[in-house]
């Protein structure tokens, strides 16, 4: 089974991701991977299958998702290091504290939310269910979507919906929320979804999407401070990545992709790395047919340079 390479649960852009790693690493090399967003463990499984001598650091901020990924990877338990943490926490000291020596050769981040969260988590991620408005991805507490909707002032709500959701009906949606708050508490995802649906005229609903999609996206980003973690985390992981290593990031909306693009570009300056994707790789027709949720995915890849002898001599002189 270990040598078979099969997609599981629609791991987004799995063919391209494995191919990029195979273009740099020999199959039988002892590689250390870091999957910073374990999710259902699909991408990790593919990497462990494709590189039989590899080991993998399995990270997720959500203990439920980490457990699910570990269960899927039970045949590889001797080759994985499961850690409940946000990828933005990873630095050399973090790795040392968790008994991991050396730097990861391959790093993967899939910034999308899992199907499990949308359909089964019961935390209000989906506008199709009537669940408590929570939206927290970790179990460590913090502000919930319910807190945001019911306590944030008009200006703050407007900023979130407009900037994080790029919602052009922001003004009317916020007015409706404030009006509703005067009479009753908004505590469930279904209530919020209905409110947004009533505000946006049906002829302006996005084709193929629920009209509350952008509002729910914006709330999730705010609750989990996702853009901040990407900004901090990608920067730190580029430093942690071993020389000659490869880092791949899948994003699902323009804000995530813009941050990744800029950080990769800045890091690649002065020859520190090579951008392997001048433009992001997107799913082909075959993948979008079998997995429509992948249609907005964008993959960016960067290959870290190996210091030359001259560079190493200069470093030694500086010390």
Protein architecture, described:
This protein has 319 residues and is α/β, with parallel strands linked by helices. It folds into 2 domains: 14-116 and 226-318, Vaccinia Virus protein VP39 (Rossmann fold, 3-Layer(aba) Sandwich), CATH 3.40.50; 122-224, DNA polymerase, domain 1, CATH 1.10.150. Helices cover 44% and strands 11% of the residues. The protein is built from 14 helices and 7 strands. It has helices at 14-22, 42-50, 63-72, 92-97, 115-119, 145-151, 154-164, 170-183, 189-199, 213-224, 226-240, 254-268, 285-290, 309-318; strands spanning 32-35, 55-60, 80-84, 106-110, 246-251, 273-275, 298-304. The chain has a 7-stranded mixed beta sheet, with helices on both faces. Helix 2 links the parallel strand 1 and strand 2 (55-60). Helix 7 packs across helix 8. The chain is elongated. Pfam families: Methyltransf_5. It comes from Leptospira semungkisensis. This is Ribosomal RNA small subunit methyltransferase H. It catalyses: cytidine(1402) in 16S rRNA + S-adenosyl-L-methionine = N(4)-methylcytidine(1402) in 16S rRNA + S-adenosyl-L-homocysteine + H(+). Specifically methylates the N4 position of cytidine in position 1402 (C1402) of 16S rRNA.
Provide a short characterization of the protein structure.
By secondary structure, the protein is an alpha/beta fold.
């Amino acid at each position: 089974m270990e040598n078979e390479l099969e997609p599981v649960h629609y791991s987004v852009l799995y063919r391209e991701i494995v191919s990029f790693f195979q273009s740099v690493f020999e199959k039988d090399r002892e590689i250390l991977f870091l999957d910073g967003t374990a999710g259902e463990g699909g991408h990790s499984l593919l990497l462990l299958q494709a590189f039989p001598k590899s080991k993998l650091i399995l990270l997720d901020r959500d203990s439920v998702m980490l457990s699910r990924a570990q269960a899927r990877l039970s045949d590889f338990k001797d080759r994985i290091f499961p850690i409940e943490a946000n990828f933005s926490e990873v630095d050399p000291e973090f790795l040392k504290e968790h008994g991991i020596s050396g730097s990861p050769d391959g790093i993967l981040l899939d910034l999308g939310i899992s199907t499990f969260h949308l359909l089964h988590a019961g935390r209000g991620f989906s506008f199709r269910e009537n669940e408590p408005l929570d939206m927290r991805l970790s179990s460590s507490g913090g502000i919930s979507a319910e807190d945001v909707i019911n306590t944030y002032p008009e200006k703050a709500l407007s900023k979130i919906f407009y900037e994080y959701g790029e919602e052009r009906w922001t003004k009317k949606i916020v007015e409706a929320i404030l009006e509703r708050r005067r009479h009753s508490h908004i505590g469930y995802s279904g209530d919020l979804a209905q409110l947004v649906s009533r505000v946006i005229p049906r002829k302006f609903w996005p084709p193929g999407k629920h009209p509350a999609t952008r509002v729910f996206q914006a709330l999730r980003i705010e609750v989990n401070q996702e853009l901040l973690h990407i900004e901090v985390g990608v920067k730190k992981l580029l430093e942690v990545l071993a020389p000659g290593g490869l880092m791949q990031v899948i994003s699902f909306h323009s804000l995530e992709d813009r941050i990744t693009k800029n950080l990769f570009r800045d890091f690649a300056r002065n020859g520190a790395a090579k951008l392997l994707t001048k433009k992001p790789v997107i799913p082909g027709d075959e993948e979008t047919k079998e997995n429509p949720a992948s249609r907005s995915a964008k993959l960016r890849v960067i290959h870290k340079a190996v210091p030359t002898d001259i560079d190493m001599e200069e470093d030694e002189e500086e010390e």
